[in-house]
């Protein structure tokens, strides 16, 4: 089991990033909440990781906080929730926001996430309510282990944002509309995705 990775950030195309760890390039899938905290290219970053082993692939997931990894591991234990949907949920909301949705029985917010219907939202609330940390251990109390820095502007940010939203489960037409609805000048891919997801969640 790989508990964490610390290395140089050499590529990031949401939801995939690559870390150079002593000459070995690790491909890692991460939620957008982690991408928002990534440093500039070439900087050192440390991520908490979770390895998913399938018959056709070994997929490494990375998280900027231990709280996000705990939430991911709790999510994939829920019936009908796989790693991809868990990643989508953590991309659309922070762990703290998701925590509040569960505590407040807020199915309306959950069903705005791609892949989460009414039944899935209700199942999440029922199955996760007793598995979440107590108030003193809530996600808001957890600290990040990444070396935070502002992401640098990238070319083709609009196209990258649309591709990332599609990878997170949104239909191409919906992803395009979400991106077109925000001003994109001088914004990085991560900033565009953040605004697009906020607009989607707020309905």
Structure description:
A five-stranded antiparallel β-sheet has the order 3-2-1-4-5. α2 (66-75) crosses α3, α7 packs across α8 (172-180) and α7 packs across α9. The protein is α+β, with helices and mostly antiparallel strands. The longest helix is centred in the C-terminal third of the chain and has 13 residues, at 189-201. It is built from nine helices and five strands. It has helices at 32-35, 66-75, 83-92, 95-103, 107-110, 118-128, 157-167, 172-180, 189-201, and strands at residues 4-13, 16-21, 24-29, 44-53, 58-63. The termini are far apart. It folds into three domains: 4-63, Beta Barrel (OB fold (Dihydrolipoamide Acetyltransferase, E2P)); 66-141, 5' to 3' exonuclease, C-terminal subdomain (DNA polymerase, domain 1, Orthogonal Bundle); 157-201, Orthogonal Bundle (Helicase, Ruva Protein, domain 3), CATH 1.10.8.10. Helices cover 40% and strands 19% of the residues.
Overall average residue pLDDT: 83
Q: How does the overall form come out from the CA principal axes?
A: globular
Structural class of the helix and strand makeup? alpha+beta
Architecture per CATH nomenclature, i.e. the level-2 architecture of the largest domain: Orthogonal Bundle
Number of helices: 9
Question: What key attributes describe this structure?
Answer:
9 helices, 40% helix, 3 domains, alpha+beta, 203 residues, globular, DNA polymerase, domain 1, OB fold (Dihydrolipoamide Acetyltransferase, E2P), Helicase, Ruva Protein, domain 3
